[in-house]
Amino acid sequence: MGNTRQFLARAADAALSRPRRLLVGLWLLLCGPWLLGARVLPYDAAQEFYPAVAYTVQQLQRLQGPWWNPLLFGGYPHFADPQGMTFQPTVILPMLLSPLPSMTWFSAVVVLHVLVAGLGATALARDYRLAAAPQLVFALTLMFGAVAASRVQHVPMIVSYAFLPWLWWALRRLSQRPGVWTACGVGVFGGLCALQMTQVTYLIGLFAVVYGVGLIAGSPQRGRYLAFAASAAALALLICLPQWLSTFAYLPFTNRAQLPLEAATSGSLSHAALGTLLGADFLWNNGEYLGPGDLSQDYLYLGAVPLAAWTLWGRSLPAAHRRLARGLTAVAALTLVYALGTHAPIYGLLYRVLPGLDLFRRPADALFLFVPAAALLAALSLDARLKGAPLRPNWPAWIVLALLVAYSLWHAFAVMRHPAATAALWISAIIAAATVWLLRRGANTAPVALLAVIALVSVDLSAHNVRARYYGGRGEMRKLYRGASWPDDPASAAAPALTRLRDILGGEVAPLRAEVYGLDPLINGATVRGMALSNGYNPLLYAPYAQIYGVGTHPMQRMDERRFTPWAPDYAAAAFDLLGLRAIASREPAEGTVAAAGAHWRLRDTVLPRVLNPTRVALHAQPMPPPGEYGRTDFRQQLWLPAPFPAVDCAAEAAGIASIERVTYSANLVEIDYRADRPAWIVFNEIVAPGWMAQVDGREVPLLRANALFRGACVPGGSHRLAFRFSPMRMIRSRWTRDAAHSMFSSSGSPP
Q1: Keyword annotations for this protein (predicted)?
Q2: Within 10 Å of residue 628's Cβ, how many Cβ atoms?
């Protein structure tokens, strides 16, 4: 028995002597199914972010730029998507190693960022001179606690969050030893955080500025620190500048130019969710979510071990850590209040004062700063215990805890009428009691007991946070997008529908399109297989396109949920002929659909040719053509243009006749070889937007906004090559210089 104890003690001591190796081992255990391809990430990770990253990777593999994406919402500037991660090297570079690229590989890359966050946490904790066990508690809680686990689907936020502890560590090192390398560390980690333009990035930026200013007083070389901090900020700006410039150039033409304060209500942390700080399953009943908010957004469970450590030893910290603890407590409290959003008075004031806050809709994003602050408070408390601090209850924490328990009990019995919800609190209490027992066994806690505490943290977070509810994606996504080969029909329930889409939409030079309803694996995902969709899932939409076609930002489950517009009043409208809408596929039956290949289909046979040669022009004085006349237009013969008539050689009536000899199509460049008897109008039925230009034989000609949304040009007679080319720099330049292209699109009805 004695030999066994000695062996266990030596093994535990050896494991704790290498905390980073132990952390990697625990990460492999918790994330193994995603690393081995047995599971994939769920929800937005699969439906929005994986297809976006896959498009960037596929374009790069074709040696083309990921600038314009014609496969979603009729087309949009892909590189300007603030959450598309087009410029994020830690995502794009490893994804280039996958041939499709696959959803399995994407999931592995994301959970690798979770490990990056944990390794950054151990580096930071080591810099604060914490022992191995507190380092691991901090790292595991930061990696898998609360929203760090429940919102793993929101990949851009997870990627920014992965570099937060590294930025924190680098800023601290810069204040201690100002120099080129420490400044480069701050700049690189800050830039990698800032490449995703989410509210998490915004709040990390505020934190970095406040923390960086706070470090001035303690820096031994203040002048050098300030100089190198300014250099680091310049480097961070240089890294994120391409994304920022492109997004801000595109933003005025979208539905997200500004959000009203009321839009933040649904993204505010609900009061009921505060109970999840005490118990992971507090708002659940047999798999049914009973909470008022979003199940992933409103989640605070950090684990019972960190909560126990903080409440029991939080007032026993050594003098060296007390200032840090006060700062962390302030951050945790402020971020919780901020996360409550419109449910608390402070957010409305911040909305009016802080520039840029009106671009975001989820105050609960602040919980990504609450997690590391609370996790480090727990780690500091545990470290104090290991260094001999007596049991000294943190009475302010106990008061808050008592109020929270009372509120949770009231909510369970009086509001939810679900007394069984209190079982989640009892489970946490048992785990906390086990933690106290392990940590109070002796004056010097044995390595075996410490390893048991680490195991308790891991099992608790694995069972409650890293499970199907938050990490577990649909098997269909894994099967449909596993590799470059086409999936067999038995591979997935959605595979037959994907195959039929390919058969219906294929064979054209430019993409024909489909709309998809309720077929979740195909929403955005079909674009990975080269299918073009006129709807999809993205909170950011090109406003003129949404105005004409009525598409929404989120996927709809049924065809009868679709909102039509005066220009596109139904699926028989000519506007859909211009767009190339060939098929509508729905999981649920609808009027006019036929069941086939696991879905219900409506096919459209009136799609217009992708290249048109109208001979007469109608002008519209308003930003968009009059809906009634627009719907009755024969677009083969007539072209709509904004007034006044452009300064070109083509006639308004009886313009030239052009024969189209060849069309070469790619996302960023369309080349049309034609022969015309005299100056002629040519319309290419793909979306026009800032950044596009028209050229004839390499010489630029005026680009026209034809038929409200499409690319048009007046071309000279004879045999020539018309090219429509997308330039990202032109899009950026047109926004900031307000050139003719900007004026043309401002007149489309989008904000100037």
Answers
A1: Membrane, Transmembrane, Transmembrane helix
A2: 10
With cut-offs at 50, 70 and 90, classify the pLDDT of residue 677: very high
Quick one: 623 and 731 in the same domain?
yes
Helix/strand/coil for 633: coil
Distance separating alpha carbons of residues 508 and 506, to the nearest angstrom: 6
**Is residue 612 within 8 Å of residue 636, measured between CB atoms?**
yes
- Report yes or no: 203 and 164 within 8 Å, Cβ to Cβ: no
Strands ordered across the beta sheet of 710-715: 611-612, 680-687, 710-715, 704-706
User: Cα–Cα distance between 101 and 92 in angstroms, integer?
Assistant: 10
* Domain match, 544 and 681 both: no
> Measured between alpha carbons, how far is 74 from 72 in angstroms, rounded to an integer?
5
Same domain membership, residue 405 and residue 319: yes
| Rounded-to-integer distance, Cα 266 and Cα 268, Å | 6
DSSP 3-state of 725: strand
The two tokens of residue 269 are 């942390």
Smallest CA-to-CA distance from 389 within 449, 454, 319 is with 319
Does residue 538 surpass a pLDDT of 90?
A: yes
Q: Which two tokens stand for residue 226?
A: 């300030």
For residue 4, name the pLDDT band (cuts at 50, 70, 90).
Answer: confident
Say how far apart CA 393 and CA 381 lie, in whole Å: 11
Q: Quick one: tokens of 100?
A: 């499709």
Q: Using CA atoms, how far apart are residues 674 and 30, in angstroms rounded to an integer?
A: 60
253: which DSSP letter?
Answer: G
Token pair in block for residue 471: 């990490």
State whether 615 and 598 are in the same domain: no
519 and 385 within one domain:
no
**Cα(205)–Cα(201) distance, integer angstroms:** 6
Burial of 209 (0-12, 13-18, 19+ CB in 10 A): exposed
**Whole-prediction pTM:** 0.94
Averaged over 45-54, what is the pLDDT? 96
Contact 164, 172 (CB under 8 A): no
Q: What are phi and psi of 389, to 5 degrees?
A: -65, 140
Are 599 and 626 contained in the same domain? no
In eight-state DSSP terms, residue 726 is E
Running DSSP on this structure, what letter comes out for residue 606? -
Report the amino acid identity of residue 9. A
If you count DSSP H runs as helices and E runs as strands, how many of each does the chain have, helices first? Answer: 27, 20
Lowest-confidence pick of 12-26, 608-622, 719-733? 12-26
CA distance 51 to 95: 12
Residue in this structure with the two tokens 């591979």, named with its chain if needed: 491
Strands 532-533 and 581-586: unpaired
* Pair (638, 718) in one structural domain: yes
* CA-CA-CA-CA torsion sign (384, 390, 395, 397): positive
| Same domain, yes or no: 698 and 550 | no
Q: In this structure, is residue 232 part of a structural domain? A: no
For 627, the domain range is: 611-746
Q: Could you tell me the two tokens for 416?
A: 């939810």
